[in-house]
Amino acid sequence: MKSVLEIENLHQIFEEGTVNENHVLKGVDLTINPGEFITIIGGNGAGKSTLLNSIAGALPTKIGKIRLNNKDITKQSIIKRAKSISRVFQDPKLGTAVRLTVEENLALALKRGQNRGFGLAVKFSNRPFFKEQLKTLNLGLEKRLTTEVGLLSGGQRQAITLLMATLQRPDLILLDEHTAALDPKTSKTVMDLTEKLIFDQQLTAFMVTHDMENALQYGTRLIMLHQGRIVVDIPAEKKKNLTINQLMDLFQQSSGDELKDDQLLLNT
Ligand SMILES: Nc1ncnc2c1ncn2[C@@H]1O[C@H](COP(=O)(O)OP(=O)(O)OP(=O)(O)O)[C@@H](O)[C@H]1O
């Protein structure tokens, strides 16, 4: 099977050669196949965001290789990668333009990867499409096409950000703790929506989370990162019936460490 993303021996070293040298990623190897929805979990400073930044091209890669659809993108710019890789951040303010309306934001998303120029005007012909897409979110946003996004709640904004990130069917979608800033109920709504968008469009996704329950409940494969290394990699069949306690045991056996990070939401 042709992979979507292949990471080979990826290292990231910050402030190399100084007293503050921090070897964060220590030889990450990872192959992501089409349609996989991977959840990645790990304690503070494990290197999750660094890994996402390396994939997105927000961080240069000096050691290791990254291939997207069999093409070496290790040296490709973040802008070029953004045509195929979309990303949703934790902060709902980062994904949308708050002074623009819902439909203007969607029009921007339709132009992803193109020169946006000054042509922000929403084409009338796009409105039925936007309405239909917004309807799938089930949040009544199809009635708010001309509302400024800044007036919407965090959950509504994250839902729109998700829609924008998937509107042009990216090869890979990166979700960077995208529900962590939301209250538990809204977080669940946005997570369910995420799952629906990913499965309906058969997208390939990579989601960082601090929440072990979310990591187990959603996605088709689970990865644990510890001190810059992948220590646990659980495929779909095994993940289905796994409990949090079993996951913690697996982590302990593989890393030789205990999961003591209180930032990991255990909910046991
Ligand atoms: N641009 C940078 N310059 C220097 N150090 C950095 C940079 N980005 C991250 N780091 C350091 O790399 C380490 C890993 O950080 P990273 O954000 O990847 O971890 P994480 O697993 O996402 O943690 P968290 O769950 O706390 O967000 C940390 O020690 C962090 O301080």
UniProtKB/TrEMBL annotation:
Q: How does it sit in the membrane?
A: Peripheral membrane protein
* PROSITE patterns xrefs: ABC_TRANSPORTER_1, ABC_TRANSPORTER_2
Q: Which UniProt keywords apply?
A: ATP-binding, Cell membrane, Membrane, Nucleotide-binding, Transport
Q: Which InterPro entries match?
A: AAA+_ATPase, ABC_transporter-like_ATP-bd, ABC_transporter-like_CS, ABC_transporter_ATP-bind, P-loop_NTPase
Top-level taxon? Bacteria
What are the ABC transporter domain coordinates in residue numbering?
5-252
Q: Could you tell me what this protein is called?
A: ATP-binding cassette domain-containing protein
Task: Give the originating organism.
Answer: Tetragenococcus solitarius
